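Work package 3, deliverable 3.1, input record:
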Amino acid sequence: MPPDNDRDALRRTLTKAIPLAVTIGAYGVIFGAGAQEPLGPLGTLLASAVVFSGSIQFALVGLLIAGASWSAILVTALLLNARHVVLGAALRPSIDVSPMRRLGLSWWMVDEAAALALADTESARSTLLATGILFYLSWIAGTTIGLLIGGVGDIASVAQQIAPVLFIGLTALLATSKKTVIRCVVTAAATYIAALGWPEARGALALVVACVIAIPGSDE
Amino acid sequence: MNLVLIAILGVMTFSSRAIGLVLMPKSEGRLQEIFQRLPAGLFAALAVVSLLDDSGSIQSTRSLVAAIAALVVSPTRSLPLIFVSGIAGYLVSALVL
């Protein structure tokens, strides 16, 4: 049996993670229903099982339907995946275990699990593991349900329209000081301006702008 | 054919996660400070990106209202409250607009 403190910490973590797990499950349903046409049932389930990334998987489906080439899909995936390097580097100081264990943990490092682990500096490793497993199960369960029920009509459009709410939640979780909030507002504004100039590259621009604005000054 | 593509994407995604967490050295000092404050800004930037369509315009008024409703309660830092407020904002705008 884990000590009471560990159980309390796990309970607190899961309380924060459940709304995210429900959201991830809902997006999984949409993916499962929408990906059947270009990927087939096996491909749809395999994508959720081995890619485990909503942004990459939805981009894959969209690009396949649009008739994009493999190279276009792989370049898109490369750009979307670049943020994982940053999230991993931010988590690295809080996760002081062997490289093999970190390799295992990196499987679970979706945006939502990384945000929760970064917000929990006391037990980032167990938070990443517990929430990563929970989110993976939600994603697979959602995908399976989506495969079974088929077309979800306007739900996909609704999900796309409320996506900003998810990222606002993750931002709020990590914006613990006034300086961080100001930096987030400046980053958001700069990203918007940059995206107006180059909308096709807005995903990559988000990472570039966030990196540039994180560099100057000090939070001390 | 698509199964091979999916497998490649799986390897790419896992590798990108492993690079930061496994291969990058443990940052210290100024570099650590920068990495620590990057994720919040990154998620804020992704919130903006997800609000826009392929032409760079706000994708819909409903989406904007949902985001504003989520932002209003974001100082609470409560994920359930932010989600409920955002979805409520979306539903109200869908009914009214």
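Chain B has a mean pLDDT of 91.
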